Amino acid sequence: MPKNFSDLKARQRAERDSYSDNLGLRVHRALSWLSRAEKEKDDLDASFIFLWISFNSAYANEIHDHKMFTEQETFGNFIKRLCELDNANRLSDLVWKEFATSIRLLLANKYVYAGFWEFQRQNKSEQQWTTEFKAANAAANKALGSKNTSSVLSIIFARLYTLRNQMLHGGATWDSSINGDQKRDAVNFLAKFVPSIIEIMMDNSDVIWGTANYPVVKD
Other C-beta atoms within 10 Å of 212: how many? Predict the structure, then answer.
């Protein structure tokens, strides 16, 4: 049965003394934003933003200047690790059982493909972006066909990252129906995905999750 904030918070309170400082901070922060997201069920914009922050709280590492990883590479590596640790198959069940149809619809949606917006900004020709879009979807369908959960999730989040950029950089109007389909699909997926990854992290409290961004500093 999918977990929600109340379920996970009760477990966190019972176990937190056994967590490392970094895991404890990640879980505490991620749960705080998950709680906020669950209070915004009637507002897709707010739900998406708060769910993304919760996801970010879980995966983000302190990255030094000499480690030139992009954010997408960072969460791609995080997703791969989660899949390897997911002994209960929560993530594969989400991909292959619960969201198989909506994932295909999301991947076919040009409005969450970064190349489409590069074309709108005249940085790419129509032929370039459509060719790249077809190639990207062929790769996605190959991953879907081989049931490669971590690859499919990484592709999904690359698309969701485009929506994230649009929302957080002021490229959309609040409560707009224009991007309503992609927001709805994203929120439905993240509302199940984020609690699952928090639970996987708590299941693997002995794993080193890395230094969290912006550690708590006490004077």
Answer: 22
pLDDT tens figures, 148-185: 999 999 989 989 999 999 999 999 999 999 999 999 99
The whole-angstrom separation of Cα 170 and Cα 157 is 20
pTM for the whole structure? 0.90
Q: How far apart are CA 182 and CA 214, in angstroms?
A: 31
Q: Are 151 and 7 in contact (CB under 8 A)?
A: no
Q: Taking 60 as the threshold, does the pLDDT of residue 63 lie above it?
A: no
- Beta carbons within 8 Å of 16's beta carbon, 6+ residues apart: 24, 27, 28
Structure-block tokens of residue 38:
């669950």
- What residue spans define the domains of the chain? 5-61+70-203
CA distances in angstroms from 210 to 61, 74, 78, 215, listed in the order given: 6, 12, 11, 12
Helix (H, G, I), strand (E, B) or coil at 212: strand
Beta bridge pairs of residue 61: 212
